[in-house]
Amino acid sequence: MDEKLESVFWNVQQRNLGETEFIQAVREVLASMGPVLAKYPKFAEQKMIERICEPERQIIFRVPWQDDRGEVHINRGFRVQFNSALGPYKGGLRFHPSVNLSIIKFLGFEQIFKNALTGMPIGGGKGGSDFDPKGRSDDEVMRFCQSFMIELSRHLGEYTDVPAGDIGVGKREIGFLFGQYKRISNRYESGVLTGKGLSYGGALVRTEATGYGLGYFVQEMLNARGESLEGKRCLVSGSGNVAIYAIEKVEQLGGRVVACSDSKGVVYDEAGIDLTILKQIKEVDRLSIEKYCESRPQARYQRGGKLWEIKCDVALPCATQNELTGKDADALLRNGCIAVAEGANMPTTPEGVEKFVDAGIAYAPGKAANAGGVATSALEMQQNASRDTWSFEHTEQKLAGIMKDIHDRCLATAERFGVPGNYAQGANIEGFIRVADAMQSLGLI
Known about the structure:
By secondary structure, the protein is α/β, with parallel strands linked by helices. The protein has helices spanning 3-15, 20-30, 34-39, 41-45, 48-53, 101-118, 138-152, 171-185, 209-224, 241-252, 275-285, 292-295, 326-334, 350-359, 366-369, 372-386, 392-416, 423-441; strands spanning 57-66, 72-83, 89-95, 123-129, 161-164, 233-237, 256-261, 265-268, 300-303, 314-317, 339-341, 362-364.
């Protein structure tokens, strides 16, 4: 890291003690900024990095709710409105027991650059709660969402802050949240949340967008190296929304996903993961992935198995942060992996990233490779604003174009700043410059 940036990073650490994930995300971006400050010294003079690292607003609130037995529970809600230089805050809500301020801040910080890379007029934010929807009835989830929205609604608006879903927040939760917002505000403000159901303002392709966008990005990466997904063996971690639709798009593009996972274990199916079965288990029945083998006897399930030790050409981590370690990176490289693209946010540890970059394989960070979800959320906002509905084909075509543009700009920026082929640095630099230019134009904010 540049010497001047070491001082900036030290100050960020001191101001955010104990926030491990946030500090990791900041370090990863700051390590790319040396060439930017050398070329644009005005950004250092104006302390642009320090300003971007400090959220515009951090909101923490109590969420009381009652379960089906009448027992009262207290959870904690968060919304970090990080940067609105490019547009209203935009970023998902995560409901998971692991949620804390550090995780929400790291996700919001990543979202600033991800949203900038889409080229859409949206700023960066993130939110959520340590509530766990797993095992809860629909009525319990509804009561929690309604209590959560009572406080969150004060801070939202289609020109202010537009949340979407994330881990633990799907169409069911978005529906309950939107219904409560509508009730509180007495307005049908459809652009205040994205990821909505099609019957009340949602957009076609939004469900598939993050996974589909990841597939398109990987195809572009391979094309840039004279390869394609056709015939490639792929691994996808996770089995949630992003993973499922990444598998679907990879298969449409000619690849074969031979393994995926959930929090309990790994399923390996040499013939290729059967999506019909996987969708039934995860999207409908909401069961463990172990059930997959009941319908596919040739498949193997390993509780607590190590996904990244399976031989593959392409690896797509789509589960959660820091799931792919340096040892996992060694295993992938040893087994001939040629491309890694992140469907989750910061799923690869710094050691793993370093190994991929040093090995010269195609490696794309989540802020570039998984930007298809938020890009399509912005397309949903466009449709809501114009009271319009687009076809699946039209929206997917727009998504494919956005992902190609992100890929090409990351590659071109990396080349321009002397790190050819480095998507991670290209994404960080391109996203930062877009946001910093806007902030400079708006004055000292």
